[in-house]
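Please review the protein record below. Tell me whether the encoded fold seems credible here:
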Amino acid sequence: MTDEAGPWLVVGLGNPGREYAGNRHNVGFMVAELLAARVGGKFGRHRRAVAEVAEGRLGLGGPKLVLMKPLTYMNLSGGPVAGLAQFHKVPPGRVIAVHDELDIGYGQLRVKCGGGEGGHNGLRSMSKSLGTKEYVRVRFGIGRPPGRQDPADYVLSDFSAAERKELEFLVDRAADVVESVVTRGVEPTQNLYHGA
């Protein structure tokens, strides 16, 4: 499969800074970093967007991936995403947001195109800046907070010790899902991974 239609923009959503690195909210960054390693790309500061960007191809002569980690905080992710999409002439249908998802159990992965943001401020900012909700989302389940913990505090806390035992495997699987969306499409990826 060639990239005649141009590159794909894969957005790992998260917050910049060492203090956020292990947070549930930063799982998008983790997946983007793994994808960069897979395609031989290195993240560096982009000259036109407030983001770190890495580029590479899936396989020999395969589709081009532009991987980004916005350097604004989560709530302002949309501006850099829209700027980079415009810079690389990537239509919204070839933008993939990888993000944490409270509404599905820990480690479950779901793919969809369009739809609501489920209270996720990173997605809300992206939808506003892109002027559409019709982009792909790879949703990484983090589950609901225990007891009465505030969801805002929960997403900004680190994965538990038990969760961390599986985290590397799950991030790897999420990267597989992104690659599948690029090479196979959304529906075949849903068929392949939603039963798992």
User: Anything to note?
Assistant: Residues 161-184 form the longest helix (24 residues).
